[in-house]
Every structure is written in structure tokens, then in C-alpha cells.
Amino acid sequence: MELLTCGRQTGRDYYEILGVAPNASTEEIKRAYHRMAFQCHPDRHQETEEAHKKMQEINEAYAVLTDPTKRREYDVPRGYGIRVPKFKRGSKVRINVNSPSSYRGYIGFVDKEPVKDAFRFWYMVRIESRGLTTVRRFAEEELEKPED
User: Fold this and answer.
1) Which of 1, 54, 100, 121 is the most exposed place for a label (fewest CB within 10 A)?
2) 105 or 50, which is more confident?
3) Per-residue confidence band for 8, with pLDDT thresholds at 50, 70 and 90
4) Which helix (H) or strand (E) holds 35?
5) Please, what's the b/e burial string for 9-26 (b: 16 or more CB within 10 A of its CB; e: otherwise)?
6) Using an 8 Å Cβ cutoff, are 64 and 58 in contact?
7) Distance, CA of 57 to CA of 98 (rounded, Å)
8) In a 10 Å sphere around its CB, with 0-12 CB exposed, 13-18 middle and 19+ buried, how is residue 8 labelled?
9) What does the alpha-carbon distance between residue 53 and residue 49 come to, in Å, rounded to a whole number?
10) Mean pLDDT value across the chain
11) Rounded to an integer, what distance in angstroms lies between the CA atom of residue 48 and that of residue 4?
């Protein structure tokens, strides 16, 4: 078996080394790691220096991508994991059934540009009901695109 079957990569992109997408789950990364470790283990390649270096790359990629803090530090400068808001100002939205708000099921419009905190985007949504207008703050996961 030749070492080339290990999917030798140029550069040091950890996702490329393991053959996974940047949005891969930890479980997908673990499966890819086990597959690559089995294929590229130096014991399978007569202890060549190249196989040893490839295995070190695979181990390093796995160590970074399975640790949430290290993965975040790795992803941000590369533009991976950067979230963009699902809705823009003026978007028509429905407050979904998972919302703890009493406005579940109502349709409204995003009143201002979304604001991002460490975990999610927040939206100010203008809701008109019974001749009254109210503006409430909702987390992105509480909103969905209404069926027209």
C-alpha cells in the first residue's frame, strides 16, 4: 500500500487533512480521524518518515478540531464558523412555536439590523395586532420564515 492512498495534502488546513467540511460535527471529525489513522498509520507503511509525519498531522488536526476552544481559535482567523444573520432589516418573520413569548405564531417584521452576542443573533421585531404596534426582542432560533 502506498502512502498516497492516505490522501496526502498540501498546506496545513486541518479540515482538509481529515477530509471533512469546516461545519463538520465532532462525531464526523472523530470518524474521519479513525479512518485516516487506520489508513495512514506508520505501522502499515514500514515505518517511513513520511508516514510518521502524516500521522503527526492527522493527530494535530484531530486534537484541535475536537477541542471546542482550540477549534474556535483555529476557525475565526480563517473565516470558518463565522455566522451571518438569517434575517435582515425589513424581513417578514413568524415567531415560531418554540418561542417562550406570548406572540408565538404571530407575523412581524425585523425592525432593526440584528445584533450578535457571543452565542446568537438578536432581532427587534415589529408586530402589529388589533391596531397596536409593539416591538419585541427575539433570538434567531425563535424566528422562522413565514409560509406565503
Assistant:
1) 100
2) 105
3) very low
4) helix 26-40
5) beeeebbebbebebebee
6) no
7) 43
8) middle
9) 6
10) 83
11) 13
